[in-house]
Amino acid sequence: MLDPAPAPVSLDRPAGPGGVVVCRLAGEIDIDDRPAVISAFARAVDRATSAVVVDCERLAFCDSTLLNALIGLRRDTAASGLSLVLAAPSPQLLRLLELTGAASLLPAHPTLGRALDRLRADRTP
Fold it and tell me: For the chain, which end, N or C, has fewer CB atoms within 10 Å of the first or last residue's CB respectively?
């Protein structure tokens, strides 16, 4: 683990090569968590060399704070030439993304493992 950061966000790198940084979200994310989320996302972009994965498996609730942070993360990863994917988003988060049109910007996979597999497959010639 790279960061001992407290919830709601922690960063780590999965085993093996690839330059992927995983942002693990946990608990409830709302306006009070904005600074921590924005900071963690910025660190992820700085540390990644190929992709950032946002793991939502332990996310219990989010509001537009996370939506705005994800859109900012999308902008920053694109500017840095990185891929961005979501892993294990809840039905509530998927609905929020669909209602706002952000789903087309943020590809989602049902599990972290599947998201990492997809990234590996995309890099394989």
Answer: C
pLDDT digits (tens, 9 = 90+) for 2-24: 544 455 888 887 655 578 999 99
Q: Which residue has the tokens 């921590």?
A: 36
pTM exceeds cut of 0.85: yes
DSSP-assigned beta bridge partners for residue 85: 53
Beta carbons within 8 Å of 82's beta carbon, 6+ residues apart: 45, 48, 49, 50, 51, 52
Neighbours of 100 (CB within 10 A): 13
Residues β-bridged to residue 9: 25
Q: Reduce the DSSP state of residue 4 to 3 states and report it.
A: coil
Residue appearing with tokens 């590809």: 107
Distance CA 101, CA 99 (A): 6
Give the architecture (CATH level 2) of 9-123. 2-Layer Sandwich (3.30)
16: alpha, beta or left, given left = phi > 0 and alpha = psi -120 to 50?
Answer: left
Give 28-80 pLDDT, tens digit per residue: 999 999 999 999 999 999 999 999 999 999 999 999 999 999 999 999 999 99
